[in-house]
Amino acid sequence: MAEPLLQEQIEINAPVAKVWALISDFKRMPQWSPQCRLMKPLGPLRQGTKTVNLNRRNFLFWPTTSTIVEVIPERKLAFRVDANNTIWSYELEPTETGTRVIESRHAENGVKPVSNLTVHTLFGGVPNFERELVDGMKTTLARIKAAAES
């Protein structure tokens, strides 16, 4: 069973506007995420816009779609992965030295049974896959930090 919340955060020495510009440009997601190979929005950055995505783990590739569920400029961006109903979000908070970014994967209502079966069959089970997701969050945030601070 999926954990209800996976979360990581990082402090970035850059203004919120600069960090927001990086995070809200979904076409750049493959630069940040070790799992994402493509994230193409099918319209402007607003609630209801769909994205087409391609993910990778080792030699396994799989497509997904997602729907943007929340956009609060320079504060929060969230999208729901349609295949499993998880919601991924980025929350930005100004700090004295820049920006705190919190990346979360929300599964408070669980995930679709087919998703659990797929994760069990192809990814070594839910706990193993979720550890990989948290490691991926750490990598994603570190890459965003490096880009924002350069």
Provide the descriptors you would attach to this structure in a database record:
31% helix, Alpha-D-Glucose-1,6-Bisphosphate, Chain A, domain 4, 150 residues, 4 helices
Distance between the termini: 40 Å
* Helix proportion range: 25-40%
Low-pLDDT residue intervals, each spanning 5 or more residues: none
Number of domains: 1
Name of the CATH superfamily: START domain
Provide the β-strand percentage band. 35-45%
Sheet bearing the most strands, described?
7 strands, antiparallel
The number of helices is 4
The CATH architecture category equals: 2-Layer Sandwich
CATH topology: the name is Alpha-D-Glucose-1,6-Bisphosphate, Chain A, domain 4
What does this structure look like?
With about 150 residues, the chain is of the alpha+beta class. The protein has one domain (about 5-150): Alpha-D-Glucose-1,6-Bisphosphate, Chain A, domain 4. About 30% of the residues lie in helices and about 40% in strands. It has four helices and seven strands; from the N terminus they run βααββββββαα. It has helices at about 15-25, 30, 115-120, 125-150; strands at about 5-10, 35-40, 50-55, 60-70, 75-80, 85-95, 100-105. It has a seven-stranded antiparallel sheet with strand order 1-7-6-5-4-3-2. Strand 6 (about 85-95) and strand 7 (about 100-105) form a beta hairpin. The longest helix has 24 residues, at about 125-150. It is globular. The N and C termini lie far apart (about 40 Å). The model has no long low-confidence stretch (mean pLDDT about 95).
